[in-house]
Amino acid sequence: MTDSSEVDAEAEFDVDQWQTELEDKRTEKDEFFTEHPQSPIPPERRESFEGLEYFEPDPAYRVTATVETDEDPAVVLMETTAGREMRYLRVAALEFDLERGDGELRDGTFELAAYQLESPNEEPLFVPFRDKTTGQQSYEGGRYMELASDRTLADGDEIVVDFNLGYTPFCAYSETFDCPLPPEENWLEVTIPAGERFE
Question: Which residue ranges have biased composition labelled Acidic residues (predicted)?
């Protein structure tokens, strides 16, 4: 089960509707973790599972990023939690601004790389990342986002990056899962108090 952010930077943004949909997704995910046979929570721990922990929804961490695509994507070898390597293609860079708590923009523009598995597929863009909550308020192995698009992205396109949909990989809950770790280029030197918590 994954969390995807739709690519639709031009649609009118309704904060109330967004928050309702976000809360519904969180409820649905808690049900999946509690009841589904493919839940990453070990069966013996599901009865005591009380739901995932989240930062409070914050629309300031739903940003519009400018896309820079790569016509000849470089291969990136991502280390995994089990000590293996997985091959991904770095297909795009996503540039965006972030607000501070007072509503003013933080200094500088931030960037995250977006990846896809090397084999041809129609999978969403994979955006693993670390930030200054990593290992403290969120999982030590970083968090993930997936950005779904119904079209081929081109240079200069805009895409919604919603950190409120940032989620913890399954390997945080069970060693039976092997998860890629965010490459250093996706380590953000800023606090992102949005999405799933893990302490």
Answer: 1-15
Q: List the end-to-end C-alpha distance of the chain, in Å, as a whole number.
A: 21
pTM of the model: 0.90
Q: Give whole-number Cα distances, 115 to 50, 75, 112, 182, in Å.
A: 33, 9, 10, 11
Q: In terms of C-beta density within 10 A (0-12 exposed, 13-18 middle, 19 or more buried), how is residue 111 classed?
A: middle
* Residue 167 exposure: Cα atoms within 13 Å on the Cβ side: 21
The residues facing 196 across adjacent strands are: 54
| pLDDT 10s digits, 122-143 | 789 999 999 999 999 999 999 9
CA dihedral 110, 26, 57, 13 (to 10 degrees): 80
**What are the counts of helices (DSSP H) followed by strands (DSSP E) for the chain?**
2, 9
What is the tens place of the pLDDT at every residue in 25-51? 999 999 999 999 999 999 999 999 999
